[in-house]
Design brief:
Number of strands: 0
Number of helices: 5
Radius of gyration: 15 Å
Helix content: 55-70%
């Protein structure tokens, strides 16, 4: 990598979704980041398998929610995305 050509490198850790603590943490974070009708839809999900629940939650959330999930601040999320 040539420093003059690369502004920044962003790397996320690989998550082990078989680990219930990580899966529960993602579900909790995404649930926290939602509001309105989306939050109601997530609250109505009736799945006991954590991986299935996580997949269902991810299928419901929009880009704005995903931005709030890791950053809790949409402006910071847009900055991270280069926008």
């Amino acid at each position: 990598m040539e420093p003059k050509r690369v502004r920044r490198v962003v790397q996320a850790p690989a998550f082990d979704l078989a680990d219930p603590a990580i899966t529960e943490s993602q579900i909790a974070g995404l649930t926290w980041a939602t509001s309105g009708q989306m939050a109601e839809q997530i609250g109505q999900l009736d799945l006991t398998a954590l991986e299935a629940l996580l997949d269902a939650v991810w299928s419901l959330v929009d880009t704005e929610t995903v931005d709030r999930f890791p950053f809790q601040n949409a402006r910071q999320a847009r900055r991270n995305q280069g926008g």
